[in-house]
Every structure is written in C-alpha cells, then in structure tokens.
Design brief:
single chain, mainly alpha, 2 helices, elongated
C-alpha cells in the first residue's frame, strides 16, 4: 500500500469502532451539544 495513504488510514478502524459504539439517536432529538462538523452514521433500521 502507498505509504502516504497508509499514514491517513492508520487510525480509521479505531474511529469506526468508536462511532459504532455510540448510542443511537432519533432524528429531531439530536443532543444540542452535537458538533455540526464530523462524520455521522445514519441507518434506516431502528435500534433500541
């Protein structure tokens, strides 16, 4: 793999796991302190 690409992807797996472990929220009930910028995971499935 290209070493420059590897540099930018090294921490992605840990960030992916962190994102998946966060609690689900319902559209319209997003906490006010949620940052405007970032990566968000949207799903069409309801999870409780």
């Amino acid at each position: 793999m290209n070493s420059r690409f590897t540099k930018y992807t090294e921490g992605l797996e840990a960030k992916w796991q962190e994102l998946k472990s966060m609690p689900s929220v319902i559209a319209g009930k997003v906490p006010r302190d949620t940052p405007e910028g970032g990566v968000y995971l949207f799903s069409g499935k309801l999870r409780n």
